[in-house]
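Subject: Sanity check before I submit

Could someone independently write out the structure tokens for this chain? I want to compare against mine line by line before I put it in a report. The sequence has 159 residues.
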Amino acid sequence: MPIQQAVQVRAATLQEDALIAEHFYQMWLDNHVAPDAIIAHWQETVLQFTQQARRKLDYQAFVAQSGDRLVGSVGCQRFAGLYPQILTASERCDGYIWGVYVEPTFRRQGIATQLTKYAIAHLKAIGCTHAVLNASPFGKPLYTQLGFVEGNVMRLDLR
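---
Independent answer below. Compare away.
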């Protein structure tokens, strides 16, 4: 069992975008994605995405800090959608939570829960009616505990 360490969650600064990108990359590795399955310019791609999301989708990231060290992060934004949006915002304005990551030695201390709660609060503040995310097998129990329910997404492997 890891030693409990004091951690503070706060809004991330622009200067921390590169670290958040690194956490996003590490999250995929921790979920057993092979490094050669990740594009070589992953960091630039994440940074460009977050810059655009910040401008157009009310993107906000949050970080967990222990002393001088950032040990976790999450990003969230209004969801741009996969198809034309014809419902009013009061009926459906989804917010998306992504990249929840906590360094291994800081896990099982409630940090991912805190990060996710901050993301949920941000999505509420920008007028979202729902929060959605894609859960890893590791994260599912946490999100269920926070009230997320599995939806009707169906997937077919085309490889």
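---
OP: Matches mine. For the report I'm noting this point. The longest strand covers residues 69-78.
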